[in-house]
## 1
Amino acid sequence: MTPILDSCAIHDSYACRTGKGSHLAVKRAQLFANQYPWFLKLDIRKYFDSIDHNVLLRLLDRKIKDQRVVLLFGKIMETYHSTNGKGIPIGNLTSQHLANYYLCYFDHWIKEQRKVKGYIRYMDDFILFRETSEMLKSDLKEIYGYLNQNLKLSIKPGIQLNRSKKGIPFLGYRVFPQKVLLLVSSKKRFIQKLIKYESKYEQGVWSEEKLAKHITAMTAFISHADSKGFLRNTIQRFGVSSYGLEPGEPRRQLEQQRQELPVGES
């Protein structure tokens, strides 16, 4: 079913799609930040738990001609409820595709009815870019109505409407027109994981190979930001053995350093 559901998607929908992903979404956000002076960032309140089964079945019926398949999806949905008639489990592969599809007609409404050229969505996180804040305020009012009336969804508190040059918090980064930085929360998670993984290696729970594998995955995430100084300082500070340094400090000292978080920009 993936090609059929994916055929509804707009170009700038980046989650759970072949050839897309979070890093391309961040690059696209930076491109729009250079083109438009204002942005509006929103995300859905308790998205997976708020997906309405009846609404989703109606949307699937628009795309799938074989009613046996629609009924099969209905049976899959019946196996999970956050509340009566709502919710899909986050971990299931079917849920990822269904959740993406649930907002695809909203994407088309934004692009084709609201005429928003600068628009990105990564699952339930989305950003609109415009020439003026007044245009985005008008979009916001209409978005509230569309989501509530058509999809029975609500926006999470903490709406962000600001100038693009101030930086856009998105997918663990702060995206500026000319640079991409890590959010402080991303730095903190990186250091906490690094301490945890190093401790597993020191205690003999993990081999050096397994430690290196996990560290490589972590550094891949931060490598997409302007983070060389942060990475260098963090490695020196916590002594990651997989980078050819001596094994890290004793657990007591690592815990003491943990209290110094969060790390500032560097």
## 2
Amino acid sequence: MAEAGATQRHVAAIDQGTTSTRCIVFDRSGNPVAVAQEEHAQLFPQPGWVEHDAAEIWMRTQQVVAQALDRGGLVPGDLAAIGVTNQRETTVLWDRKTGQPVAPAIVWQDVRTAGICDELAQDGGQDRFRDRTGLPLATYFSGPKLRWLLDHVPDARNRAAQGDLRAGTIDAWLIWNLTGGPSGGVHVTDVTNAGRTMLMNLYTLEWDPVLLDAIGVPATILPTIRSSSEVYGIARGMLDGVPVAGALGDQHAALMGQACFAPGEAKNTYGTGCFLLMNTGTAPVASTHGLLTTLGYKLGNAPATYALEGSIAIAGALVQWLRDNLGLIERAPDIEPLAQSVPDNGGAYVVPAFSGLFAPYWRSDARGVIAGLTRYVTKAHLARATLEATAYQVREVIDAMAADSGVPLASLRVDGGMVVNELLMQFQADILGVPVIRPRVTETTALGAAYAAGLAVGYWRDLDDLRANWGQDRAWSPSMGDDTRATLFAGWKKAVARSFDWA
């Protein structure tokens, strides 16, 4: 067991995701030395509503931190810093005196704010705020969720005006609790998370008075916007004395963890949803093909780095649906051998528009469909179509990204839970027509948060240190003919069109 005060040999990251919370401790080479993970409840009180209990998330966070330290034989003094990465748009409103949430957190997938978005779009359309935020009006983002909470939680607006409430995305909630909560917790967020609220100006990196007024959110309840890599405060409790020094939304953290530090470098994360980010340098690039203009990261006082993003709502969650709702598999990994038992999809396509379609369509009226069914189709074909759905969605985003950036993709760096599925990775390479590359360390989201925290305290010197840590584990090269690729993709586009105008 290491003793307190020993040389600080590690950096830790809290990776708070949509379905679970993890704590991972990394060494200087970016290798995980201890990991702990706990799931939390997914709450579906009405069709289209998705909620989390923020108090449970904080409890799970404390559990995984304690477990990771124990498994690594570590004490807080062994950690140079801790970083936080999080499911991004999920929105929490809490009482600053008790530290308790005043309502369930509204998850990024939730579509209850469709009416608010429609109301806001009446003056200026879906792109009303795009020039300030880089984002279309959509249920995805946090600002309308916060407006909904203020409008529907009894006495919330009055309590907010009196200074009794605090609001933020999960990063702000966790940092506030880590640094003391009701007893002096620091209320901050970073530019990558603030940029997903539809309340931050993409250029000033501050809360925008025009946006706050239009959407109906008081600035007084919002956290202070800081860079992604600086010391926000010192942890209390189980991490007592450890600097809390990094925060990034999960996809931005993966961009860092994949060492995509040069313009044109891109990564794709396959998780609950699927998120492709391309570094575009220190100037925002406007999208005309359905992508988001977003922050990549901001390291201390250095200029912000921007990115183009394609967001896909349902990827790994479709496998969970096949398991939990349909019972076609017992465990998520079972999908690969089942899908491999047939040579193709049998003509079937699954379009997982469970909460509408995100990039590049932004259709909240879309709903999921299974198309192309015949008596020939078996559960194995549906399993294969389920995996292929993710690859097709990624292809659509990459086509849009090439059109926006003018930079054709040469290869794709991938990470996230689904990259262990070799059938999916090969089909992804086939349908893209470019190599797909999996890194040696696939925990790139947590690694990116650790990098941000470590840079802030000098544990790593610069981006070259981080680049040196990246290494390739496996690459898949395309082996599909052009005609086959075109035929399969055309079938996908027809299936997507069938999902429109349902809701």
## 3
Amino acid sequence: MTDVQGATRIDAGRIRSAWEGRVSGCLLGKPLEVLSFQRGPRGVEEYLRVAGALPLRNYVPMVEGTPVASIGRDCCLGHIVRAEPDDDINYTVLALMLLEQRGIGLETADVARAWLRLLPAGSTWTAEREAYRTLLTHMAEQFVNGNAAGFDLAECSDNPFNEWIGAQIRADLYGWACPGQPSLAAALARHDASLSHRREGVHAAAFVAALAAAIPASGDVDAAMDRALEEIPGNSLTAAAVRFGRSIAGSPDAVPRLHQHYEGLSPVHAINNLALVVWAICSCGGDFSAAIGDAVSAGWDTDCNGATVGGLCGLMGMTIPDHWTRPWNGRIAVGLAGHSELRLDDLVDRTVVVARRLAS
């Protein structure tokens, strides 16, 4: 399907809510991430039950003597003063910078250069870290031997994690900046994702970006998902994950069915987490707190899923209660070279400018 340039009005309110939702969802899931990896979904559920926080509808309470207290204290209820640095938000800001610099001319090589210039290697994980390692190795070869001119960037995505969640968490802003243009959003996300990912890892990123772009131009989330599915192969595992997430929406046993269906898959794989994201969005009935709360309490990659669900639900126009945004008060800490803390208002304004430029 061909996108219609400029067909959807740039809505600064939607973009602001997308930022607010993504930051709040990430902050909600951040203190539970290590617990989820160490003890699985049952560990997350047990912690929240002990904390008196089920169903999860506010930030995570801190229980002393737990991994949450030792690692995630600054992200717990009553301790939050800003959104703490997280790779999910780093990549969203980096995508904004890339679009500011390159616009629709963005290529994978631009992403590689931005990583080397702005993204600390220590802030990368799994596929991104392997891709970064490959970039640094070839830079060293060029410096020492002067023989790296023939380096193929495709080598960076030749890694054992190239279908994991990393590219999916980098994709949201490409959709925010392209309302009504899901094909363009998906193409930009693929250029970004291809540096470190292949196959399902790239399809998942393209779907999330296309969904974000389709939401403002669609009558409801079902129509937006149908449109976004057109941007990925219908026989892909990613498309199957979207269909499965939609099929269990509203089911009382949805969470155990998710975990049974994807048993044995890494908790940071793209497709199981995407199915969870789709289920949470389709099940929340327009309740933002339920969407991010249920997405996080279901386990797996808690901060990534909270961020993606939060951003998409904000973009859908769901009301974001004040208790999610008030604690961090527009302060967004990042781990990018030359940047330590950014303001929400500034990020919203910059995103609106980029979206208008792309629409022209």
